[in-house]
Fold:
Amino acid sequence: MSQERITTLLTEQRSYVPPVHGKSTAWIRSHEEYEAICRKAQEDPDGFWGTRAQQLLHWFRPWNQVLKSDPEAYKYEWFAGGRLNAAFNCIDRHLISGRRNKAALIWQGERESEVRCYTYQMLYTEVCRIASALSSLRVRKGDRVALYMPMIPELIIAMLACARIGAIHTTIFSGYAEGGVRSRIQDSKAKVVITADAAMRAGKPKPLKANLDPILEKCPSVAHVVVVNRANQEVNMDRRRDIWWHDLLDDFTLDADFPCESMDANDTLFLLHTSGSTGKPTGVMHATGGYLTYAAHTTQWVFDMRDDDVYWCTADVGWITGHTYMVYGPLALGATTVMFEGVPNWPKPDRYWSIVEKFRVNILYTAPTVIRSLMRVGEAWTERYDLSSLRILGSVGEPINPEAWMWYRTHIGRDELPVIDTWWQTETGGAMIAALPYATKLKPGSASFPLPGIDAAVVSGDGSEESDEGGHLIIRRPWPGMMQGVYGNPEKYRSYFERFGAYQSGDGARVDEDGYFWILGRIDDSINVSGHRLSTSEIESVLAAHPQVAEAAVVPMPHDLKGESIYAYVTLVDDAPWSEALRKELRDVVRRDIGPLATPEIIQFVGSMPKTCSGKIIRRMLRKVAAGVYEDFGDVTTLAHPEVMDAIIAGCRNLKEGRPER
Ligand code: PRX
Structure:
């Protein structure tokens, strides 16, 4: 679509009505129906959530209380006293419901010819085998198992095997480097790590086991490492600690039948670390009953999931989106979920569209950063494929800019499919603010309305309600998908609730005159790079640990493709020269320690930081400069040495124009 047409469409400010075809069989068919459900959920939340939990899951024992609250401690136990098992819900019960031979998981490897498909029966067998194997390594209920793995079926199998045993899985994104992996294993005190020799990236193996080896020397909790052979790479195997996945499985016959542990609804299902506002990652804990209910509930309504749908969430399983919308949500519903090992643009930028055609994908859930990058290469790549199987398009991870929204709808959605923007977070477990495909009139760029039972509001800094001005996005009532706690850090958990007496998301938002929510991005110290949340302080501490660095301040900078990228201001110790070699070294340090995602786009050396008289760096000003705004800094009276800003602005201008900062 031409830029002109996009601009016309956007200035028309049309809203997009839901498609007619498919409406009559949809889970929620109209805005009136949505409103009626919202009213019911508001009047009787226990009745609403209890009914959903009953409809969607199999419980070994019913709960005594839908929600047991201790509001003083912000402690909420969903389905208290109930018992269930997540793996049983995602596999076993489908074996007797007529879905035994249905495809549960279709895996497309990086190479076109590599495809694996697991029916529910096959998934059952594999999960039981690896559960038996983990059990032989003495993994028991409550133990932590870290999964540092590529996007291969073994990752999903390992998650479900942990769930079967009652062990707590903690996945670590395979793109993390040394520091990111180490801090997560150390924090969870994992007993076993499952990894692979390597991950395939653009045709080349990228080592995982070799990355892990030096890290493990600093992780005394790890007794065993199980290694999947993905890429036939040479790896070091420590005979007392390491074992190949295939060797371990060899001991367990195909008819291994590993019984499910009966879990309390409030036993932890998994831990997933997110970048918090401190340098240390936050181990978000999700409980079995509430999380699984919410995953199944939102997958069914937000994607209008039907039994014959082929559903593809393109996120990496290392993030919450992969957990909820590739694994737990769709499998709990007995759906067919697609997993893709590769990237959208290798070897050519047509991988997504060829996969949609190949498996006749009906529901596609991806991220704005992907859409923007595919939009940039032009629609000719999309036109080669038959995308007519698609019924619903989803978006997650960052605000979707209206241009990308329009392109997605026009070229992928043949100008008629609903583009469902879903706002949520690792901590919320599942989508919170999202359109419903057959009920919501869409406004490009808005995530629309809170889902039924979700009491979202936008408030000012003092907690009073705002209307169209924008403010803090909070959730006033508990919901089943909410995190259960922060692993080993109750203070951190409390900090989410203390300011407003309600869950504080850390995002800014605005509600328009029609009640639509517009997410404005993070207002805490996080940066959202290509939909991945990174902590500024984590990057700052890595930079500051370099012997030549005195201080570092990291802020977001707007970026066309990634949404935001990283801008770092660095002061050096006295005699250190500002050199290109050091700049490169600092970028490498971050890349090596946290991972390529966290690499600063720009590092600017500065003589001094803008500080208050009490010595605090004023990041607000640094943020503006990084965004190319060189005036209107608001209240500058707190700035101890105003001349500092002139030098910083001059340096930034020089860098952006390709010259050294001075
Ligand atoms: O800033 C919001 C942004 O991503 C953050 C959550 O990141 P994470 O916990 O990694 O989970 C990502 C997947 C759910 C949020 O605080 N975000 C996520 N979805 C959207 C979004 N921002 C705007 N619109 C969205 N749809």
About this structure: The pocket of adenosine-5'-monophosphate-propyl ester is lined by residues 274, 319-321, 396-399, 421-426, 447, 505-507, 519, 521-522, 528, 533 (CB under 6 Å). Residues 120-264 form a domain with the Rossmann fold fold (CATH 3.40.50.980).
